[in-house]
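We emphasize that the prediction below concerns an isolated chain of 424 residues; any contacts that depend on oligomerization or on bound cofactors are therefore not represented. The input was used exactly as deposited, without trimming of termini.
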Amino acid sequence: MEREPSRRRFITGCCVAGAGALAAEGFASGATAGATSQDDAPPTRWEQTYDRGTSLDVNGVAPTSDGHVAVGTAEPGDDETESEIWAAEVDVAGQVVWEQRFSERAATEGFAIESVDDGFIVAGHTHEAGSSAQSGVALRIDAEGTEQWRRVFDVRDDTTDTLRSVDVDAAGQFVFAGWTSRFEDAWVAKLDDTGGITWMNRYGPGSENRYHGITVDSDGGYVVVGETVDTTGDTAGWANKLDTDGVQQFSQQFKKESDSATNTFDDFNVFYDVDESREGFVAVGANAFDPQTNEQNGWALEFNVNGGRLWDKRYTEESYTELRDVRYTNLQYFVVGETATDGDGTDARGYAANLGIDGDVNWSGTWGSGSSQFSAFRLTDADGLVTVGRMATTAGGTPSGWALQIADVHAHADRRGDWDRHGR
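Result of the prediction step, given as a token string:
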């Protein structure tokens, strides 16, 4: 039976965001395993997996007054061409309070979530099965996960567009970052609290331009990071500062210096997230001398308010390491990501670390088994570090959603005060 095409909409319970599928029974199953490898890492307070019988990736997390809301992508059944945005609230022990699912077209995915007044804003995309035409999705839900509005929009009707990150500015407007197939450009859209488009622009110094992360800075503008292919054919980490109207203030490309006399920079460099720091901004991601070797290092780089590089460091736990999320507070940084034997996810584990003001590691640890990764996290005084991601039995296996709390990170890092995304 052929499914009715386009604009398919439905909602059913939950509140951690992502893409996934619901099984006929079961909410969260608990686990008590702590870090599998630690260098003075703090202990694990709780750990939960969210098994829905089909694939579920948890990609983002935002705090509530008494827990967290996560977002991701779930498959509703065995058809891998179909997916839904999945959102769920979890309490202080990681137990599910409510769940919701949201679908627009056959494949609808959620990648990021931020807290707003009385609810949350979600970034994602949607497309029909087998279609290259893909639209960005902005979804506003209230504190119980009920949809308030959604905006489905494109750079052009026939383009392949995606929104991968979102932040909220002081005026309560939403800034989304992603990319479009239109001239292979990166894409930023600013929406008001009703879903109306204030402006949207394309950016790109090279080819295959992509934005993965965005943050609102203390001046009221926006800093976005990602990747671009430069004139040498290398993939460079890319940072761009915009004013409140989307006008570019600076655009900088960064590559990690290599140890080779004949190829002085790594061929592959990418930023996945960014946060404001004391001297400017810190971006995290990965780099590789030769991406064909299936090996890469985690990467953190701080740049100043004019885009000048201040420092950058590599982080290697296993042969394949990447950093996916970063928070700055009190002259130090917290990061999470993945480390694995190779890029196929063999023996992959979630990776978390606390870095000093110049990027040196204060503590680090790995968590999980089989094929696991951390995608995003949040910090609070009361809950420590709450991180979300995915866990599968083996590389290429069907993943379940995954969340855990690393306790007492403030004591290990000698920190004080409450945190939000910008360390306030």
